[in-house]
Amino acid sequence: CQDLVPLIDTILKAGVTDSPMTALQTQQLLVADVTHKVLEEFKPLQPQEHPVDLEIAEGLVVQADPQSLCQVLRNLLSNAFKYTPPQTTVQVIARRCEPAAQSPDGTSQVSICVQDSGPGIPPDDIPLLFGKFVRLKRDLAGPVRGTGLGLYISKQLVETMGGSIWVESSGIAGQGSRFYFTLPAPALDQTR
Fold it and tell me: Smallest Cα–Cα separation from 167: which of 117, 114, 104?
């Protein structure tokens, strides 16, 4: 219930207004711990249908709002589970970005990727994905349900936390999609 209240508030803000999100309370979080917490929410069904392969660097820390990071991971994993054929692995890969990929202000970044092996996303549809109430044409008549707000909300949350989010997909069935997002990371000598 505690996690749903901010989500409902975000959905209402997204549905009613285009006003920017309020500042979030960020703190240092271990990526592996947050990922495991979110995956626990999907038990007992998803791990049996979709094995999850975690490739998260040990001790990897981001500067993020706990509820917001959980919500972004929840949205991306939920989509991966919906679109990936049964008994197919979903991957979560997280690592510190190379120094050349740091943000313009020199802040170190961590990249987190949720990868599936579903139908992929047609290249023409990729620019639409992070819009409000967007559902792909193939999904409107198909069995996959959704509001078209998950990726929009994820984008708002990631950007409010100082990161960016994007998708890579060839649109070829079976090759799936890779949803990436970055978040600020504390300097290496400041991690716990």
Answer: 114
117-161 residue pLDDT tens: 988 888 888 888 888 765 555 554 555 555 567 898 899 999 999
Q: Which residues of 72-95 are buried (b: 16+ CB within 10 A; e: fewer)?
A: bbbbbbbbbbebbeeebebbbbbe
Candidates 135, 140, 162, 169; CA nearest to 150 is 135
Phi and psi angles of residue 32, each rounded to the nearest 5 degrees, phi first: -60, -40
This prediction has a pTM of 0.81
According to DSSP, the β-strands at 90-96 and 52-56 are: parallel
Supply φ then ψ for residue 110, to 5 degrees.
-115, 135
**Residues 33, 64: Cα–Cα separation, whole Å:** 13
Which pairs count as long-range contacts for 50-54, CB under 8 Å and 24+ apart, including other chains?
50/80, 50/81, 50/84, 50/86, 50/87, 50/88, 50/89, 50/90, 51/87, 51/89, 51/90, 52/89, 52/90, 52/91, 52/92, 53/89, 53/90, 53/91, 53/92, 54/91, 54/92
17 has a pLDDT exceeding 50: no
The region of weakest confidence among 7-21, 104-118, 174-188 is 7-21
Residue 97's nearest CA partner among 111, 112, 76, 80 is 111
DSSP state of 175: T
